[in-house]
Structures are given as structure tokens and as C-alpha cells.
UniProtKB/TrEMBL annotation:
It comes from Verticillium nonalfalfae. Pfam families: SnoaL_2 (PF12680). InterPro entries: NTF2-like_dom_sf (IPR032710), SnoaL-like (IPR037401). It comes from the Eukaryota. Residues 12-80 form the SnoaL-like domain. This is SnoaL-like domain-containing protein.
Length: 81
């Protein structure tokens, strides 16, 4: 069985950033996740803090619209709005 990386990544992105599901972070991100945004800490804890901050600021759940999805082997690139 081949893993569908596009589905895996879009599901993760929707659950974490669209549904603001803090618990989903542990389902999809490894403990050694490297965050490339200098204002967010590395690892799942940094993403969880971001989600909690967004919720506290009144950000609501939303359906992520994926404009482009490019996948090659285990690398996936998303363009969303």
C-alpha cells in the first residue's frame, strides 16, 4: 500500500490550522519538528502555543482552501488561502 502524502499533509493542515485542533499536533508532528518561523518555537509545543494564541485572539475554525498541491516522493508543497 502506498502512502498518500498529499492527503496526509492536507488532512494535517486542515485539522491543525483550519480546525485549530491542538490535539492533532501530536498526531501529525514529530518531537523534532523544525519551525522556520523565528517567532514560533521548534517542536510540537511551539505549534500548540500558536494555536492556543490564535484561539485566544478570537480566530475561528475555517475550511482551508488548497489552491495548489505539489508532491514528489515524500515531499509536499501547499499553496492555500
Amino acid at each position: 500500500m502506498t502512502l498518500d502524502y498529499k492527503k496526509l499533509v492536507t488532512d494535517a493542515y486542515q485539522r491543525i490550522f483550519g480546525d485549530l485542533d491542538v490535539a492533532a499536533v501530536d498526531d501529525y508532528m514529530s518531537h523534532d519538528f523544525i519551525q522556520h518561523n523565528p517567532t514560533i518555537a521548534d517542536g510540537p509545543s511551539g505549534v500548540k502555543e500558536l494555536i492556543q494564541k490564535l484561539i485566544s485572539q478570537g480566530v475561528k475554525k475555517q475550511k482551508i482552501e488548497f489552491k495548489h498541491i505539489v508532491a514528489e516522493d515524500d515531499t509536499v508543497i501547499l499553496h492555500s488561502r
